[in-house]
Amino acid sequence: MRATLTIRADEKLRAALRKRAAIQGKTVSELAREILNEALEERPMSSRTGHLRGQLDLPSDTSDPWRKQLRERNWRP
Predict the structure, then answer these.
(1) Is the pLDDT of residue 28 over 60?
(2) 30/7 Cα distance (integer angstroms)
(3) What is the pLDDT of residue 16?
(4) What does 8-63 look like in DSSP terms, one character per residue?
(5) Is the residue at 74 inside a domain?
(6) Full-model pTM
(7) Does residue 2 fall inside a structural domain?
């Protein structure tokens, strides 16, 4: 069963939705459903942040407590 969902959006957001929907060959409703589904999809943290793995590159000087803590908790070898 489908239900109607009404949201308020300023003109800038509506224009952006219309533009992206037109580019993708979809209706605004289809695009909004896809965006909401993706935003609400439950995914493990690793799949959402996996692209960040290995990006933290700290100097070997760990005299700063904050840097020391980051280095200790970084999961990279």
Answers:
(1) yes
(2) 14
(3) 97
(4) ---HHHHHHHHHHHHHHT--HHHHHHHHHHHHH----HHHHHGGGTT-----S---
(5) no
(6) 0.56
(7) no
